[in-house]
């Protein structure tokens, strides 16, 4: 029976790869190595990729599609995104993050997955700028005395500049 828990960022990233094409855990894990396209943003070790796959299957977002011989071990189970999984990851990819701190991983994962699939990032970037508009508007005024507030202000200013630069780049981000 599918669970009602929201997938984690790692689970969404794995589901995003499955939504592109059926694959097995070993191949998916390569994308999350430090030198991988997604690993540059979010490094995930192979056991956690397999755990994410198990959770996606349990939630009804992925399902076995076939098996293929392993290089030197057991058969590999090739998984694919279900229609519900495709809908779920598509909605997630279009939704802005809530906090500036979530730009560093979740937002960058979304941009990476959109670019991998050849889709425009323009709408997500615009929605993200709108979602953080209030945070960015609060940047005016003198620097706060508190070191945490000072860090937050400068991080938000950097995030605003980053999103503005992405917006200037156009559809490919």
| Biggest sheet layout | 2 strands, antiparallel
Instruction: Look up the CATH topology of the largest domain.
Output: Arc Repressor Mutant, subunit A
Q: What is the beta-strand fraction?
A: 5-15%
User: What oligomeric state is this?
Assistant: single chain
Order of helices and strands: HHHEEHHHHH
Instruction: Compute the number of strand runs.
Output: 2
Tell me what the CATH architecture of the largest domain is. Answer: Orthogonal Bundle
Strands of the widest sheet, in order across it, are 1-2
**Structural Rg:** 18 Å
Work out the count of structural domains.
2
Q: Helical stretch count?
A: 8
Overview features:
2 domains, 173 residues, single chain, Arc Repressor Mutant, subunit A, mainly alpha, two-stranded antiparallel ribbon
Structural summary, described in words:
The protein is mainly α and 173 residues long. The protein folds into 2 domains: 1-94, Arc Repressor Mutant, subunit A (Orthogonal Bundle), CATH 1.10.10; 96-173, no CATH class. The chain is built from 8 helices and 2 strands; from the N terminus they run H-H-H-E-E-H-H-H-H-H. It has a two-stranded antiparallel ribbon. A hairpin with a 7-residue loop joins strand 1 and strand 2 (76-81). Helix 1 (9-20) packs across helix 4 (83-94), helix 1 (9-20) runs parallel beside helix 5 and helix 6 runs antiparallel to helix 8 (147-169). The model has no long low-confidence stretch (mean pLDDT 92).
């Amino acid at each position: 029976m599918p669970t009602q828990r929201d997938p984690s960022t790692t689970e969404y990233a794995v589901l995003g790869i499955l939504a592109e094409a059926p694959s097995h855990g070993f191949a998916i894990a390569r994308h999350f190595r430090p030198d991988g396209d997604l690993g540059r943003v979010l490094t995930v070790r192979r056991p956690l990729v397999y755990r994410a796959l198990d959770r996606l299957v349990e939630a009804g977002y992925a399902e076995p599609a076939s098996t293929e011989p392993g290089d030197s071990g057991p058969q590999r189970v090739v998984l694919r995104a279900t229609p519900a999984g495709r809908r779920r990851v598509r909605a997630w990819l279009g939704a802005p993050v809530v906090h500036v701190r979530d730009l560093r991983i979740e937002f960058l994962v979304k941009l990476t997955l959109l670019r991998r699939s050849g889709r425009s990032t323009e709408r997500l970037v615009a929605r993200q700028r709108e979602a953080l508009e209030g945070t960015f508007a609060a940047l005016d005024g003198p620097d706060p005395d508190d070191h945490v507030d000072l860090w937050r202000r400068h991080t938000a200013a950097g995030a605003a500049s980053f999103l503005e630069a992405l917006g200037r780049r156009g559809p490919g981000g």
